[in-house]
Known about the structure:
Elements: E1 5-6, E2 30-33, H1 39-49, H2 56-62, E3 68-75, E4 78-89, E5 111-120, H3 129-142, E6 154-162, H4 166-174, E7 178-189, E8 192-202, H5 212-225, H6 229-246
Helix pairs in contact: 5-6
Amino acid sequence: MAGFSWYLSEGFQVIIEKSKEAKCSLKDVQLRFLCPDDLEEVRSLCRDWFPIEYPQSWYEDITSSERFFALAAVYKTQIIGLIVAEIKPYLKLNAEDRGILSRWFASKDTLVAYILSLGVVRSYRRSGVATMLLDVLINHLAGPVAHLPHEHRVKAIFLHVLTTNNEAIHFYEKRRFRLHSFLPYYYSIKGRCKDGFTYVYYLNGGHAPWGIYDYVKYVARAAWSGGGLYPWLWGKLRTALTIAWHR
């Protein structure tokens, strides 16, 4: 395979992570979406990477359903990494995930992306493959070109991770994912309950629920950009009086 290529639409930008330990050149890596023929290979990889046993229906869905952003990194015809994310309405999230966004975004138009899986073959890790896959997902959702059907309506990308998976936690924190919540006994692995974390990456103007400090900072920034506190307050007061008068 000569050069870096992908089977995706235009408008993507990929940040390539360089490493002295790289086992392959990213210039020779192809990106393509998963297809039904990949099912057995993907199942073998996931069983090697993750402690959770996924059902057969899950593999069928991610290799055939348009609900999923399922992207593979291919090197010399072999899948060496993949990322699977589901784009879903914010209002349909489970209760434990509903608080990742401010209430301002609680509408039927708000979407979020949930990363179900991100893995790389052990011998190709620390080569920039995982970063490349994650960057393509982020740029697909928030890049300069608005892609249908979400069109920049995705306000957050989130995931769950075992509290003991320090390597994954470091990876996501390095890429500006923020710890949102602790999930006690979230996972059941081989009959034992394990704790998890929720990590969130905000995009397209999305943000976490605000506290008092955030509101104060917002008011101060708005006042400063408006030429000072008094002009800003007078403008707000004048708007309020105008609305009251017309009522």
